[in-house]
Design a protein that fits this description.
The protein is an alpha+beta fold and 555 residues long. Among the domains are: 185-419, 2-Layer Sandwich (Heat Shock Protein 90), CATH 3.30.565.10; 469-554, Beta-lactamase Inhibitory Protein, Chain:B, domain 1, CATH 3.30.1450. The protein has 16 helices and nine strands. It has a five-stranded mixed β-sheet, with helices on one face. Strand 2 (329-335) and strand 3 form a beta hairpin. Helix 4 (69-82) runs parallel beside helix 6 (104-126), helix 6 (104-126) packs antiparallel against helix 7 and helix 9 (276-285) packs parallel to helix 10.
Length: 555
């Protein structure tokens, strides 16, 4: 029982897809009642005696058209082939099927099955009153006009609505991505500021600390002067500590994205390879022995590589001043065939005595080498740092001349370009898509062509049928009773029962045991009335014409 209940619940949800608020329930009930009444009235006019069952069936199909569009289309086609009462329902079922059936194979199968039932029921009802070719042609034309055309328009509307929904969703997504790009650009800028503060201000404060340390051991100064210099050095150390904390905060807020050196829109930077000489001179002025050398033929550098080389030397000098004060330093630039090699080495720090030895602990935020490695990676290079066998320290960087854009920056630039490129055209021609109007217009054109061909075929058939069912007055006068059937039929046209049906109900009584043929008689009189038709009747018995009569019937 539980399985049956679940199956029944699933079938109901499929046939009547929700939600079903009160307003929709009332609307569907009113519309179903209206469609049922219309179908019943049409059946009353047609005098088929099926007004009540067809009215109820149409009302039920109207409710099922959303959940079971294929079923509604097939059943409506079968009923409309028998009578014209359900024709409005067939039109609506075609619209619903075109709009709601997504799979093309199922859609085509539903329409083909609906047309076959429409044609079969029509043939069963009227096959004895009209030629089969005429019934097929009329049914095909009617089905194309009243079912296929509404289905094409319904499908166009549904596809256009789906395309607009997709475009709106994509626009919302692009707007969200644009906000993310702006936020990430802000983070990149904060990270760049933090890196520059760390490299530039940290270097200057380190030089101040080195100068102060040198003054503290100067024997020419008085104790009061040494105390003042000590205060100055402690202030420099405190300033470096606060700078590290600020840089750490900025780095913590910017960890979602690596810094982009020289990114588009960034402020111009100082230094470069030419500024390395000034760094060396500043360190020498602080009393540190610094050797500077350049090897190889100088090559032009990309802006990001030039700035990275400057910052690497600056950070290396700062670290040497902090961790090995007073130790000799060597700065070397080598222009290799494919890359610039930047190398900074320092020997072991000399033993410090006196006031300078206890001046304060080294301040380190742990960001220097990490930042250098990130700078080198962003331009396509690498950094190696480590101790030397002489208990000194060596920092070397290999930087390509052209540089390379970071993957993160490239991805973000791609997102910005995709946003700035804008939405695809409203007709759906962008990104290889085709507008739903193209396919629907092609379908409408094909249907129109078929209908035109059927109309031409119908007109030609009508003219041919009229000719085949009409006999001239001169031919009628030449035919005499007693002539053989074969001789009479050679003079008469082939005839057409579709145009002469109903003539047998009027006129004189047929001779007993005879077989008769009816034709429209064309007399050529100017006083002929449009409401009357002149009929010629030829009756045969035993292969001989036994009766020929002319009479008038009402149209």
């Amino acid at each position: 029982m539980e399985a049956i209940a679940r199956a029944w619940s699933k079938a109901v949800r499929t046939a009547l897809p929700g939600p079903w608020p009160r307003r929709r329930v009332v609307g569907e009930a009113v519309q179903a009642l209206f469609m049922g009444v219309v179908a019943g009235l049409l059946e009353l006019v047609s005098r088929t005696g099926l007004a009540v069952p067809f009215g109820i069936a149409v009302a039920v199909l109207w409710v099922l058209r959303r959940g079971l569009p294929a079923t509604a289309l097939v059943l409506a086609g079968a009923m409309t082939g028998w009578s014209f009462g359900p024709l409005p329902m067939l039109v609506c079922a075609g619209w619903a099927a075109g709009a709601r059936i997504r799979r093309v194979g199922r859609l085509l199968g539903s329409f083909v099955l609906s047309y076959l039932l429409f044609n079969v029921t029509g043939t069963l009802k009227d096959g004895a009153l009209a030629p089969l070719k005429l019934i097929i042609g009329l049914s095909l034309g009617m089905f194309l006009v009243f079912v296929v055309l509404p289905a094409l328009y319904g499908r166009y509307r549904a596809q256009r609505r789906a395309l607009l929904d997709a475009l709106r969703e994509r626009n919302d997504q692009l707007v969200r991505e644009r906000v993310m790009v702006v936020h990430q650009a802000r983070l990149r800028e904060r990270h760049r500021i933090a890196q520059d503060m760390h490299d530039s201000l940290g270097h200057q404060l380190a030089l101040i600390s080195v100068h102060s340390g040198a003054l503290e051991v100067d024997r020419t100064l008085t104790d009061r002067q040494r105390e003042a210099v000590g205060v100055l050095r402690q202030a420099a150390v405190a300033a470096m500590r606060e700078l590290r904390e600020v840089v750490g905060v900025l780095h913590d807020d910017s960890t979602a994205l690596p810094p982009t050196v020289g990114a588009q829109g960034a402020a111009p930077v100082r230094g470069g390879v030419d500024g390395i000489v000034e760094l060396v001179e500043s360190s020498r002025a602080a009393g540190t022995e610094v050797a500077h050398s350049t090897e190889g033929e100088r090559r032009p550098l990309a802006a990001v590589v030039d700035n990275a080389a400057y910052r690497i030397v600056q950070e290396a000098l700062t670290n040497a001043h902090k961790h090995a004060p007073g130790a000799p330093i060597a700065v070397a630039l080598r222009y290799e065939p494919d890359a610039l090699v930047v190398e900074v080495t320092n020997s072991r720090a000399p033993e410090l005595v006196g006031a300078h030895a206890g001046a304060g602990a080294v301040v380190s935020g742990g960001q220097g080498l990490t930042g250098l490695r990130e700078r080198a990676r962003l331009v396509g290079g690498m950094v190696h740092a480590g101790a030397t066998p002489e208990e000194g320290f060596r920092l070397a960087a290999v930087l390509p001349y052209e540089g390379a854009e970071s993957e993160g920056a490239a991805a973000l630039a791609g997102e910005e370009d995709r946003f700035l490129d804008g939405l695809p055209p409203a007709d759906g021609t962008g990104d290889g898509r085709r507008s739903p109007a193209i396919g629907c217009a092609a379908g409408v054109g094909a249907v129109t062509l078929v209908v035109v061909v059927l109309v031409i075929w119908g007109v030609m058939g009508f003219v041919r049928g009229t000719t085949d069912s009409t006999v001239q007055m001169s031919v009628y006068d030449q035919i005499r009773p007693g002539e053989s059937r074969a001789e009479v039929m050679r003079r008469l046209p082939p005839g057409n029962d579709f145009f002469t049906s109903g003539f047998e109900h009027d006129g004189p009584t047929q001779p007993e045991g005879s077989h008769c043929r009816w034709y429209s008689l064309e007399k050529g009189d100017s006083d002929e009335s449009w409401s009357e038709t002149h009929v010629a009747r030829f009756c045969f018995k035993g292969g001989v014409l036994v009766d020929k009569v002319e009479y008038v019937t009402k149209n």
